[in-house]
Amino acid sequence: MDPELEAFIPLFPATDLSDPVAAREELTALAVAVPPANVEGMVVEDVLVPADPPVPVRIYRPRQARGAVIWLHGGGYVMGNLDTEHPWAGRVADLSGATVISVGYRLAPEHPFPAALDDAYAVLTWASEHASELGLDPDLIAVGGHSAGAALAAGIALRARDERGPAIRFQLLHQPGLDDRQQTWSQRNFTGTPWMTRDKFAMVWRHYMGSRPVTPYAAPARAEDLSGLPPAYVATAEFDPLRDEGIEYALRLLQAGVSVELHQWPGTFHGSQAIVSADVSRRQIAELAAVLRRALA
């Protein structure tokens, strides 16, 4: 374990996902503790995207940005909102120079699959159709996120391909949770890793799916064909139950002819990039932004 990260492990809450309301309150407290992003010099506004129901988004517009990313927060489909994601969405916009459209998708278990996916896809469609009004190039729209948000990004990339929907320039997948089956080596062996464990991820899938059948749009690792998808950046954490499903998905994308950059961050755990005082966290955040900046150039 990276020693700068290890020092913070005792400070993380236990986070009982069987109580979604309490878990959301804990995430809010963690988000407040993260140093704010620099949003000076950019326009930040909240918008309701027309859909059924309307989807709240927060748009971060740096000067002269032509490219954008549909940004989807983590939180196991159960936690997170526009406010808890504010430090991260703002950082991505500030460091990449891209417009960030942060999505406040509906949360499980109150709104199980496909609610979050439908919300994310509605925002992607809206951004593509209204690109000129938003000052964007419709050919320079990426999708991305962390954890559950990264899985949503991969899911809407599959859906856009299958439905011949909006063009997606790039997928930015940070520590994605892609496989409900939990049969990889890391899922079977990392049962007590910091903050997020195998059992917590099992609870995430129960909240998200309920009794519904799992489709590739919910768990992209189940997709048989990954050809024709946008280029991707995949980042994994060494001590994370999700590690191997991210690596395997990246390899399958490569084997399907999709260009991929894969970075396995040593000494890290799921969500540890939130510890922004650590050098490895700052490097992760800077790399995410640099990759996005290159993809939207």
UniProtKB/TrEMBL annotation:
Pfam families: Abhydrolase_3. The keyword Hydrolase applies. Residues 69-272 form the Alpha/beta hydrolase fold-3 domain. It comes from the Bacteria. Keywords: Hydrolase. GO terms for molecular function: hydrolase activity. This is Alpha/beta hydrolase.
